[in-house]
Amino acid sequence: MTYTIPDEPTPSTLAKLAVRPMWPLFALMFVNTGVSWLWFIANSFFQGSPYLKKEVAWIALGLAGSCLGVFAIATALSQGFIDESMIPYLLIILTVWKLGISYKIFVLQNNSFELFEYFQESVSNGAIPFIAMVIIFQQISLYQLLPSYIYLVLR
């Protein structure tokens, strides 16, 4: 019988690509939700997080809630229940939803990352891919590339 810590990660062969979970959280704030959540999943895989399934489930819940929120806003607007001037305020609720989900994922991932960092010799610097993403996504206008519904879900 071997002793294991419940939060102990089992790093993948790509463990050297794992970054601190704060970087995907920063990507949520400065890039967009889609990139952030993909980075959270990749980072969880790289570090071998024991919570990978929970993190993916939270992201699925976040996507479902975002889709439902955008659909509800679009439906309420088309039925005349709300005025166009209310949309920016309703989008704040959607933003808070995404922040809450992302923070939950951050907390889950950070728990096992501290053990991962302790046992690994080094951890990648997340600032470099983060800065690259910020620069790239400032040059790309996703609003023009994606349908408005998908843009609002992933924004």
Amino- and carboxy-terminal Cα gap: 48 Å
Overall number of domains = 1
Largest sheet: none
Shape: elongated
Order of helices and strands: HHHHHHH
Counting helices, strands and paired strands, the structural category is: mainly alpha
Radius of gyration, rounded?
A: 18 Å
What is the total tally of β strands?
Answer: 0
Q: Percent range for helical residues?
A: 55-70%
Beta-strand fraction estimate: under 5%
- Mean pLDDT equals 88
Point out poorly predicted stretches: none
Annotation field: number of helices:
7
Short précis:
With 155 residues, the protein is an all-alpha fold. It has helices spanning 22-30, 33-47, 52-78, 87-119, 127-139, 142-145, 148-154.
Description:
This protein has 155 residues and is mainly α. The protein has one domain. It contains 7 helices and no strands. The chain has helices spanning 22-30, 33-47, 52-78, 87-119, 127-139, 142-145, 148-154. It is elongated and about 60 Å long.
Topology:
Blueprint lengths: L21 H9 L2 H15 L4 H27 L8 H33 L7 H13 L2 H4 L2 H7 L1
Keywords: Membrane, Transmembrane, Transmembrane helix
Question: Features of this protein?
Answer:
single chain; 155 residues; mainly alpha; 7 helices; 70% helix; 0% strand; elongated; transmembrane; transmembrane helix; membrane
